[in-house]
Each structure stands twice: as structure tokens, then as C-alpha cells.
Amino acid sequence: MSDAHAPRLFDSLSREVRTVAPADGKTLRLYCCGPTVYGPAHVGNLRTFLLQDVFRRVVELSGTPTLHVRNLTDVDDKTIRQSQAEGVPLSEFTARWTARMHADAGALNILPPHHEPGAVAHIPHQIQLIQRLVEARHAYVAQDGSVYFDVSSFPQYGRLSRLADRQITTGQHAPATETDREEADEYARDSAADFALWKARKPEDGPNFWPSPWGDGRPGWHIECSAMSIEYLGDTFDVHSGGVDLIFPHHENEIAQSEAATGCTFARHWFHIAHLMVEDRKMSKSLGNLFTLDDVRGRGFSPETLRYVLISGHYRQPLNFTWDSLAAARSALARIAKLDEALAAVAPDSGPRGCLSTTLLPLGDARHGMASFAPAWDALLDDLNTPAALGRLFTAAAEVESRIRSGELPPGQAGAERGALHRILFALGLRLVAEEPPAQAPENIRALAEARWNAKQSRDFKEADRLRAEIESRGWIVRDGKEGFELNRKFPQPNA
Ligand code: AMP
Ligand code: ZN
What integer pLDDT is reported at residue 356 of this predicted model? Predict the structure, then answer.
């Protein structure tokens, strides 16, 4: 693959759009920070995983195999707290949410990573890495048996997140606004900037502790990604990715502890995905605008439609999620399906209707086989410009449709265009499937919902709550709007 046909991508460390090529000239080694498995992924998390998936598909289609690792954070404050609240062992609890993540990722056509290591299964690797840091005096053991990384021992600290530019530092490096989820539970440390590599056992951790040279405890959050990326991808690997919220402190800390231990560059390229907003607001539980794939399905939209919406914005810009955008995506996908039908009618030998051919061109030959869709492919190579790719896909679709209408597209060419369309859809991970019609609530559920609405209007909130619970127990969720209520199908929780 020549550089001209290699994908280019913005690197958050150098702040430049750079060609992404594997250091070994063979396989692109990609590490993505994975989900914390304590609940279902929300649409924001899914946006990040989807853009990483499109990136991987583009790299592979452009001729470079990938080695993709995405970890599971299966031990931290949230997983421990939540499993205890439910009275379930941590491993059982996280296995349930891991299964849910797999189901969601599968429904969204996200390629499974080649390795999906979990933090709990890699505690020896993390202890070993911490030991190296202690021996090299980059880390110290506190009185209670916790181990901290000494940020002052790593002068390059803060390069990724431009800490020096922020002018909000306290002590030597730490931003005054640090709200790191793992640093929330504090232990004594020498400097506010230092972060925990190993956390001494606390009573509230219950049975979730492991032996270490420093006593019982559990690993900090950041060390898991360093230990597992080094284990599966080596001291230096090609691309490291996550949402922008991970730049500081998570990725900054990963760089410090990895490079301090190995003396090598950690990741050669940093790929960060901007956040998803909902109706122009930050997505949060308290605002009640945190949606999952099941919420989207409950409103009658398919996972393909959600995928389309979540990849329709450029990864470097925050994306605003609206229900209207889902409706528009549904029409867009229907239009593509219609083009596919029309091409299949002209070129009946090009494969069955309604499903994508899975035969891809030999690696490295992608652009050659893109026919009218080459401009869309070029947009993907150019800093993963998914909105431009979709725009150009529709421009090409209009041209091809017009040639079909005027009878100017011979079957051979129609077959080639269809193959090209399938290739570009494969790059975007979009499948052409029939939309499920929105589920209609049966009469008895509607009657309960109406009774609840009336109870609410007459301020009998107790009765309204009772009826809501009853509706939920029968598999439906009721939501109130200005004009009245709306009923959506509730999807079963794993093992529920
Ligand atoms: P978590 O499960 O919280 O560890 O997050 C999994 C991934 O989702 C990480 O890469 C986060 O950076 C990313 N993420 C979290 N919130 C959002 C959001 N609102 N939009 C896009 N990505 C997000
Ligand atoms: Zn990570």
C-alpha cells in the first residue's frame, strides 16, 4: 500500500493530520479503551466504539490488517459499588454487562476486537508493571500499602493534554478541576498530581481484593490499559483511541507510566472522538437524556439507523443526537436500499437482493474497485470524514440512478457499481436490512397507561407510580410529553 492510499487521521499529540501506517509495515496495532461494565453502554459510548470500528474497517480495506485490542474495565469503584448494591459477586455482575455490551456491539455491526482483555484477569501483569515502576523510582509505596506514580519523575507529563497551557495547575502538575473517577476515593499521596497505581484494600471493597507485594488491594484504573496494551501489542503500538474525556487524566497517565517503565514511545498516534450531545445538552442521568440502544429500539428505530446517525458527524466535532436525526437516517438508509434493488435488477448476477455481498476486493485494491463511489472512499481516507463520505455516497447514488433510468448503465457496469456500493457500505459498517415497524402497545397496556395519566392529572401520584410499575412489569415503558404519554417497548435486561 502506498502512502497515497493510506488513511490519514488527526493525531491529538502532534495536533496534525498524519498518515497512519503500521510501524512494522505489516499490521496496524490498535488499542481502544473499552467499556466499564456496570450498566448498558449509552449512545455516547456507542458513538466512540462505532467511529473506532469505521476506522478499523477503512484501514483493513485500504490493505493493512489490524490487531485490535479493546479492554473491559471490570473492576473499579463503580463496578464494585453496583455489584454490592445488588448483592451479586463482582465477576457475575460484570459478566452480565459484558454480555450486554457484546449484544449491543453485535446489533450495531461493530467488529469484535481480536483481544478483549479484562482488568481482573490481568492483575499479575499490572502488578509486574507497578513493580518495574517502583524499582525505577517512578512510583512509591504509601503508608497504607497503596502505590502512587510520582509525576515529578516524568518531566514530559502533560504533553498530550497540554497541561502547561491550561494554567489551572495546583502543586506541580495537577489541574485544580481534576475529577478523575478513580481519584475520587483518595489516599495519602506526596503530591496532588500523583495518581494511584495500586489501591490498598478498603472495607467497602468487600471481597474484591488481591494480594500484591504491597499488601492486599486492587489496581488503579489507568494501569490496566498500560499493562494490557503492552501485553497484547508490545511496548510501542500504532494507534491508541478513546473519547475526548479520556485525554486527561487517563491517557496522560497511561503515557507516563508506560514510557517510564519501558523507555519507549507508548502509542505512535492518538485518536480521540468528540462527545455526543443530546438535543444540544450534555448527556447525563440527571437530565434524563441518557439513552441506550434499547431506548432507541423502543422508539421503533433499528440498530442500523442508530449506527447511521452516530457515524454521520465528523469524529472531531461533538455530535448532536436528536430523534429527528433518526427519522432522517431511516429515510437515507431506505434510499440506499432502493438503489441496491435497482442495481440488482439491472445486474441480476451481482448477488441476491437485500443483502450485501461479503466478497471484498483483495486488500490494497480498495480505491480501484470503488467505481462511482471513489470520492466517498477518498473522504474516509482523509481524516475519516464520515459526513463527507455519506454526502458523496448520495451524490454518486443520484448519478447512478439517473443512468439506470435513462438505460445508460449496462449490466456489467451496474454489477461493478453494486460491488462498489457494497464496499463503501462495508467500510461504514452499514447493513441493508428491513426496518422493524415500531411496536404498538396492546389495548390492556394502553388502558393502564391512560389510567396512570388520569391519576397523574388528578395528582394521585402514588397511584400513578403504582401503574407505571405495573406497566413496566409487563414490558412497556411510559414517558410523558407535553401532549400526553408515549409507550415504548422495554427490552429485557440480560439474565433478567
Ligand atoms: P466508559 O464505559 O465510561 O469507560 O466509556 C467508554 C468509552 O466511551 C470511552 O472511550 C469514553 O471516552 C467514551 N464516551 C463516554 N461518554 C461519551 C460521550 N458522551 N460521547 C462519546 N463518547 C463517550
Ligand atoms: Zn484506557
Answer: 56
